[in-house]
Amino acid sequence: MVFLIRFTLAFALLASLSACSSLSGFLFFPHEGHYQTPEGLGVDYKTIHLDSEGFQLENWLLLPKEHVAPKGTVLYLHGNGENISTHMNSVAWLTLEGYKVFLLDYRGYGNSEGASTLRSALYDVFQAHLWLSKHEETPLFLFGQSMGGALAITYSANINELEKSELAPIRALITESSPADWPQVAREAMRNHWLTWLVQIPASFIESKYNPEDHIGQLAGLPILLMHSKQDPIVRYAHLEQLLTAADKAGVHIETYQTLGGHTQGLAYEQARKRFIEFIQNVEPK
Question: Does residue 3 lie within any of the structural domains?
């Protein structure tokens, strides 16, 4: 009987997803609208609109106070849930350190149009990178949390396939709680709930060609800091170890920092913020 229930639920879910061009859309859980704005945190900002394959994306550029000369710009890629209005708290503090922060909302998130897949999210990152290359002159750093960290790794490894001459160089890459393997992290997440445990089959169909562990070996020469907590219940610490193994095999140097707290909670702690700032400030100018 249990097998029959599991098979029926799995078949129904597979059928509902069969019309999708890619099951990677199963990874995205956006919230529409905004719950707060930077103004509510006392942070100056601009709203930036981007066109990404015909879809309008609404994003925020957080600014240091007017009397502070910007030290650099951080392109921030958030995780797979909610939108920039909830993830903003993870990075707004950077403006107090003199950094601009570009918060990208992928398709379907916040006030951005469309719906996301892994491929489309990577293209949205490209559009944000292109805009910053044309409008900002300060050093550019890429920071992603959770799914955003995985996107940051894969995107950075494939910049050579883009019109690189138009793009500002990424001076350093920082991630927190990044998955190493998409199908793996989907299966692990599904096991945490009784209903999705019954229907783990679809996770094996999620695209694996964007797996960060298959791309991190292409990042030789790029300063990289991977942050992760051993208490992370969502993206387990083993994912960091997998990324390190893949990088080591390719001879890519990686720095790591063990954070406190749960999933993507590390930057709530002063020591993690200090390590973040030290890392990007020690990057050699290009």
Answer: no
CATH number of the domain bearing residue 138: 3.40.50.1820
Terminal Cα-to-Cα distance of the chain (whole angstroms) = 63
Query: What span, in angstroms and rounded, lies between the C-alpha atoms of 190 and 196?
Result: 5
Domain membership flag for residue 202: yes
Longest pairwise C-alpha distance within the chain? 69
pLDDT tens track for 268-284: 999 999 999 999 999 97
Predicted TM-score (pTM) of this structure: 0.88
Rounded CA-CA distance 120/115 in Å is: 8
Q: Residues 225, 174: contact at Cβ < 8 Å?
A: yes
**C-beta separation of 104 from 75 below 8 A:** yes
Count of domains forming the chain: 1
The pair of structure tokens assigned to 156 is 């950075």
Phi, psi for 96 (deg, rounded to 5): -70, -20
Q: Which residues span the domain enclosing 203?
A: 37-281
